[in-house]
Amino acid sequence: MSDDVDQDRRRFLGGAAVTIAARYAALGSALQQLASVARSLPAAGELSSLSGATAWLNSPPLTAEGLRGKVVLVDFWTYTCINWLRSLPYVRAWADRYRDRGLVVIGVHTPEFAFERDLENVRRALGDLRVGYPIAVDNEYAIWRGFGNHYWPAVYVLDAEGRVRFRHFGEGEYEQSEQAIRRLLAQAGAGDGLDGDLVSVDARGAEASADWGSLKSPEAYLGYERAEGFTSPGGALPDERRVYAAPARLALNQWALAGDWTVGGQPATLHAPGGRIVHRFHARDLHLVMGPATGGASVRFRVLLDGRPPGAAHGVDVDERGNGTATEQRLYQLIRQSRPIIDRQFEIEFLDADAQAFAFTFG
Predict the structure, then answer these.
(1) Which of 122, 158, 288, 357 has the fewest C-beta atoms under 10 angstroms from its C-beta?
(2) Within the chain, how many helices (H) and strands (E) appear?
(3) For 311-344, how does the pLDDT look when each residue is reduced to its tens digit (9 = 90+)?
């Protein structure tokens, strides 16, 4: 993936993960206008880029011509993105409610990490996340470029003539998105009955909305290409095996490795059991994108919160004692704590070698 794509996402969504106030300040009034002002763009220009999909899942290939007369929602995603995961309940609900009214939802999976290019990984994620609408696999970023997109998640709603009439970047504004869907369906002749209650979702686990008021930790990448806040003495030695140590104290949003690791461009890879990652954070939820480096393997791990098992603050992927097993490369929710939210020190110890860790995200 190109550096400009990475940096665009980091500026928009990395900053967004700190507070909701900062998120909307960054967006500004221009994006609010995008949510309500219809766009007159060349008919089907963006949809023609669907021909660049490297594969289709849940559907035969869809084309701009075949979609003529349908209202189309295009949702750009990648399956480890926490911002997209928190928007998924709404996209899933819209696909279910409005399918029979003429709405076609297309998920465009454009990968961030190298392992997200693997078709079987994407296929497995669809099952785990209960995604049943058509998916265009966009490994070469052809559809991404066709829409001029820069963000995960990003929603584009096109009218029956193939014109983008609404777009929204990032999380939130779900009511505005659904109202745009209804308006375009009505214009396409979907009939009455589009003015009732909007969808209601019961989001759980990693899909639950962030606690924006308590969120003071941005995403943190472990690969040297985008790492910030790394405090192991001596810094990272790119692409070379080294034994790292964690300092005695960490400031907020600093993190460190301990043990026998290689820090690569995207992942940090552990070579011997007992390796640790320590991170001082301030958020309700802590997630880690990680998994075994070898397909079909598994890696046992244990997490601590301020030096103790997390107890009731454990996430969905660990038990109260902090024990868990990584069996695939994906986002794992390791901590979900109740208020009051304060600075906490998180630690994960891998009991097996061959673990890879990519990024922390928070909620």
Answers:
(1) 122
(2) 7, 17
(3) 999 999 999 999 999 999 999 999 999 999 999 9
